[in-house]
Write a structure and sequence with these properties.
single chain; alpha+beta; 15 strands; 25% helix; globular
Length: 299
Amino acid sequence: PHYEAFLDWKHRQNVFGPSPAWVALHDDQVVGYRTFLRWGFLDAEGRKVRALRAVDTATAPAYRGLGIFRTLTLQGVAELTLKGDAFIFNTPNSKSRPGYLKMGWQQVGKVPVSVRLTGPRSLAKLAGARTAAEKWSEECSVGRPATEMFADHDAVEALLARIGTGSHIATDRTPEFLHWRYRFDPLRYRAISLGTGVEDGLVVFRARRRGTAVEATICDVLTPAGTSPRRAWKALKGAGVDYLLKGSTSQGRLPLADARQGFVPVPALGPILTWRPVATPMVPAMDQLALSLGDIELF
């Protein structure tokens, strides 16, 4: 029952613009579908860059193996190149990644992730979590619904001003983007304030099942300089989750502050980021990017 509203939110309400899509027809029936999700970036100099994420695709069962996915994808790439979109990125699984690589995608690398266990029994649960996470989130009472936190435009703008843009290629975070990105209720995104108000910092997360465990996926850590997210980690310890999953393309070696707060690298859980140059013939190194799990998670 969520899917019609889900696709409307994802592909039509997106603040970066509606998703371009292509279909394959046979006898007036749709037998193939391919769409890219629009995304906005700031480059290292702070300039806006138009980009896309390779997301939803489908081929009717009777028409699989005929090259429909490849044809629609390459048609899309050609048209987006002419329109001046810079690049397409995604984190395909092991089954679809070879197909993307054959179509000109390049592998940037594995996104570093780390986990923080919430108790001694969590270690056994973590061992059974080496699988894809569920799309829909679990109920959680910690923090407040993210849609409420990001509804205060002025407070979010003040928070972003305190954080700054940095010198990496990063998502163009605006109050409008954050309000759109985390407002779809069935995904149950929640946010924990790190002070007395939104402008003091937020940690955005959602609880979801992964195999035998329930994880708290840390989607965004929006912290002004000098602010520690430790308050959020303590709150999540009582959230009914087995561990916290945190990751970032700019994380590299686990920061000392994260290590002191109980986070341990788990390379096996990191998704592989791929990149397709379109109008801009450049593939960045991982340390040139600043993407959070909220930028690259499957939703």
